[in-house]
Design brief:
Blueprint lengths: L6 H17 L4 H7 L4 H10 L17 H14 L3 H21 L2 H13 L4 E4 L15 E5 L2 E12 L6 E7 L10 E7 L5 E5 L11 E11 L4 E2 L5 H15 L2 H20 L1 E2 L2 E2 L4 H29 L5 H26 L1 H4 L5 H8 L9 H11 L13
Parallel strand pairs: 1-4
Antiparallel strand pairs: 2-3, 3-7, 4-5, 5-8, 6-7, 9-10
The protein binds flavin-adenine dinucleotide (FAD).
Flavin-adenine dinucleotide binds next to helix 5, strand 1, strand 3 and helix 13.
Amino acid sequence: MDLELSPEQRRLRTEVIAFARAELGHDVAADDQAGRFPSQDWRRCADFGVLGWPIPQAYGGSGFDPLTTVVALEALGYGCRDNGLVFAVNNHLWGCAIYLMLHGTAEQKERYLRPLATGSLIGAHALSEEQAGSDVLAVATTAKRDGDGYRLDGSKCFVSNGPVADVFIVMARTGDRAAGQDHLSAFVVTSDMPGVAVRRERPKMGLRTAPMGVVTFDGTPVPAANLLGREGSGYRVFAATIDWERAFMFAPQVGAMERLLEASVRHATSRHQFGQAIGGFQAVSHQLADMKIRLELARMLLYRVGWLKREGRLALLETTMAKIFVSDSLVQTASSAMTIHGARGYLTEDGIERELRDALGGPIYGGTNAVQRGVLAELLGVSGALHHRGPR
Ligand SMILES: Cc1cc2nc3c(=O)[nH]c(=O)nc-3n(C[C@H](O)[C@H](O)[C@H](O)COP(=O)(O)OP(=O)(O)OC[C@H]3O[C@@H](n4cnc5c(N)ncnc54)[C@H](O)[C@@H]3O)c2cc1C
């Protein structure tokens, strides 16, 4: 694997950073406090092409290969201080658009993927339910055959982008759980279908500019043309897509780690106590060294995933490691940044406490890191590490 970025990728990185710094996240402190979705920044992302980066040009996207997409997302995470906005972009791309890219029919792509790529529709992933978190197969929302289509009933929670989304990828039961993994099917559902209701989730700790919702379906008629894949293939559709979400969702977090490291170096070299810069104390400098090590390892893992995906190779082991390592590392790095900044890090003004609050979601979404460690152990041949089959 060649770790040297091409001149085009380096230029893209520079352009994305310049765009993100100039155009995004200027009101993040106020938006975070108000729990407000920055719709103007979202529009700017759409105009810059962010919402279609990995989507083929044939459907209005940029057609970036997976490695280039990782580089662009990392640059976005580095340049944009609003982690919630970047998270909303990620949910749009890796919770929704990627499902249509990989499993959609030509008609579904034309109808949904094209407007998702240009940002005229917003995407979300409605999978979790009150009783179905890590245990995806416990999904209770039903899709019953009704004439030519299906009738959807149930409720989804924790849906990122939910309150602003137009298109949901929804997992529902079309059979009996006794049918093993074949009782689930995936559907493309739009917010304007009859019986779809969305309300905001209860307030959350971080990523507050990415709105979260509860989505309910009350006898929602869904045409058979909106089935993603075949009836009963929902879990396979999910399993074939989740590794994209696991890795690519976390690319911007590498950028955030670099931003936090730079802020911490600046503070450690400019803040003086006991007559010297605090960076001169080993307790501080060693934290900076560890932040740098985590940053470089996280980047290498992510780039390796991007490269494997570009080559069309299997990357389940690598994406699982990337998800765990990058999200845990960002929490440690944000915590170190807080420690190094002292009380200033604890105040809202500098935004360090926001970075820590935002980081703490990473080990939970996309499949908790505990469950991912079980997946990793199973991939290493340790059977029974997850006690049952079918976790996210
Ligand atoms: C910021 C954020 C955004 C999210 N966005 C979305 C979204 O857009 N769409 C969506 O559908 N969902 C979303 N979620 C929900 C997320 O996917 C779930 O929170 C996650 O899958 C875990 O489910 P749970 O919270 O119900 O925890 P549970 O499954 O109840 O787990 C609770 C604890 O038990 C542990 N645990 C459970 N099973 C096992 C096991 N087999 N082995 C070891 N430990 C285990 C977990 O690791 C965890 O520590 C989001 C969550 C967050 C925090």
